[in-house]
Amino acid sequence: GTFNSSNGVTYGVMGTLTMSAGFLNVGWSSAASTLNIDGTTTISGGTLQVVTSSSANSGTVNFHGNVTINGGTLTRGSTPAAGVATVNFDGGSTQTLTHSSGTISNQLQMGVSNNTTLNLGSYVTISGTSPVFSVSSGSTLDCGTNVLDGSATSTFTLSSGATLITANTSGIATSGSTGSIQTNTRTFNSG
C-alpha cells in the first residue's frame, strides 16, 4: 500500500518501523511534513520517500534509533523539485546505520546531529544525484573499519566541533577511493 503525509503534519512512530513493501511518502503535499521514528527502523522492501517527485515542499525524517537497510529504498523523489529532503540521525545517543542491500539515493540531505554518535555497521553507499552527508558540531561519525561511499556528485562535510572516528588502515583522504570517507567532495573541518 501507499501512505502519503498530509500538509504540514508531524507524524511519530513510537516503536519499531519495519518496511517490507509499499510506499511511505513524507513531504507529499503542499506543506512540509516530518516523520519522527523513535525505535529501530528496518527497510527490507518498499520505498521510504522523502519529498516526492511532484512536490516542491520539504520533508524530514528523524531517526532516533538504529537503521537497517537490507532491501528497499530510502530516497528523495527522482524528479528534481524545489523541496529539501532531510534525513537526520538525531537520537542524542549512539545509533547504528547498516546498509547491506537496497538503495540510499537522490538529493538526500543526511546528517548526524543533536550530540548523536552514529556507528557505521557496514559499508554504506549513498548514490544518485547530489546526496549530502554531514556531521554537526557535538556529534560523531564512527566508521570503524567501514566506508561511507558516494556517487560522482556526493558530498561529505565534517563540521567544526564534530568528530570522525576511523579504524580504516588508510584513515581519511581528501580524494580518491581510499579511507573511511569516499564521497566525491569531502570537507574535514577541525576544531
What is shown here, in short?
The protein has 191 residues and is mostly beta strands. The protein contains no helices and 19 strands.
Give a quick set of tags describing it.
19 strands; 191 residues; eight-stranded parallel β-sheet; mainly beta
Descriptive account of the structure:
The structure is a single chain. This protein is mainly beta. It is 0% helix and 53% strand. The chain has strands at 2-4, 10-13, 17-26, 33-37, 41-50, 59-63, 67-76, 85-89, 94-105, 108-112, 117-120, 124-126, 132-135, 140-144, 148-150, 155-158, 163-166, 181-182, 185-188. The strands form three sheets. Strands 1-3-5-7-9-11-14-17 form an eight-stranded parallel beta sheet, with no helix packed on it. It is globular, with a radius of gyration of 16 Å.
Please list the strands of the largest sheet in the order they lie side by side: 1-3-5-7-9-11-14-17
Number of helices: 0
What percentage of amino acids are in beta strands? over 45%
Overall outline? globular
Please compute the radius of gyration using only Cα atoms.
Answer: 16 Å
Q: Low-confidence runs (pLDDT<50, min 5 residues)?
A: none
Tell me how many strands there are.
19
- Helix residue percentage: under 10%
| SS-derived structural category | mainly beta
Span of the ends, CA to CA = 47 Å
